[in-house]
């Protein structure tokens, strides 16, 4: 990870989260979110109103899903960091595409409980398109019209692909990359873009607590654990759902 940090909304003494801790936080938020989507959506007590805000009933299911909104922005930030600091960008992109393909079957069972679900693809495809956008922006740095053409082409693919978070997620990744050296602007612009899903904006609190250090994740085994976490945890949750709720 980088030794030089961009200015944060927090003083240096509050920048205490390593890249490894951010990954862990994102995985926990994602697990909470998917537990709600896969299991609690079939558990009637979780769908019972606990209290009301402005006349709107708030359920445990809704609370869980709202907490999970923080996962995607953190993962986007980490994808930018990984792209900037990886020793092998081709391998980095290959891994994103590989795990997009591996994750597709668990993803299909999550939504349709079948091997094939064409309506929507998993979030690794969105992250991979973001990676391609970073490559294009860097490769065509001195040719702005090619940058624009590449981004528009990838945006079109994201719309056709219907990957998780869709074209909004793709544009968010591009914004995170373009504002990579300005965490304050990144938080402001990113939050404005995520206004349609405003709970996700809280992710910028942890992002601005990042200290630029790699942390405890070292070696291939630990690295691939976080790649595998996505398809594996979805598979486990789908099995639990099918055994106890379907």
Automatic annotation (TrEMBL):
Keywords per UniProt: Membrane, Transmembrane, Transmembrane helix
Record field: transmembrane: 21-43, 63-84, 96-117, 123-141, 148-167, 187-212, 224-244
Say which domain of life the source belongs to.
Answer: Bacteria
Quick check: keyword Protein biosynthesis in the entry?
no
Q: What is this protein called?
A: TraX protein
Q: Which organism is it from?
A: Blautia obeum
């Amino acid at each position: 990870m980088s030794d030089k940090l961009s200015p944060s909304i927090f003083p240096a003494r509050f920048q205490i989260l390593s890249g490894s801790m951010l990954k862990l936080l994102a995985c926990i938020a994602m697990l909470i979110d998917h537990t709600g989507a896969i299991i609690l959506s079939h558990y009637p007590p979780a769908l019972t109103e606990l209290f009301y805000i402005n006349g709107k009933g708030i359920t445990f299911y809704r609370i869980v899903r709202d907490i999970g909104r923080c996962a995607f922005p953190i993962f986007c930030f980490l994808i930018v960091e990984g792209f900037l600091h990886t020793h092998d960008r081709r391998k980095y992109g290959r891994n994103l595409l590989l795990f997009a393909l591996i994750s597709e079957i668990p993803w299909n069972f999550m939504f349709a409980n079948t091997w094939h679900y064409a309506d929507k693809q998993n979030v690794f495809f969105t992250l991979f398109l973001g990676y391609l956008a970073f490559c294009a922006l860097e490769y065509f740095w001195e040719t702005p019209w090619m940058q624009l053409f590449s981004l528009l082409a990838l945006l079109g693919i994201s719309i056709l692909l219907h990957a998780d978070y869709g074209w909004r997620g793709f544009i968010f990744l591009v914004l995170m990359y373009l504002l990579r050296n300005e965490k304050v602007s990144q938080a402001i612009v990113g939050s404005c873009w995520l206004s349609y899903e405003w709970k996700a904006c809280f992710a910028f609190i942890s992002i601005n607590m990042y200290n630029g250090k790699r942390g405890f994740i070292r070696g291939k085994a630990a690295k691939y654990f976080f790649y595998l976490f996505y398809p594996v945890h979805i598979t486990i949750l789908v099995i639990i759902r099918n055994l106890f709720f379907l």
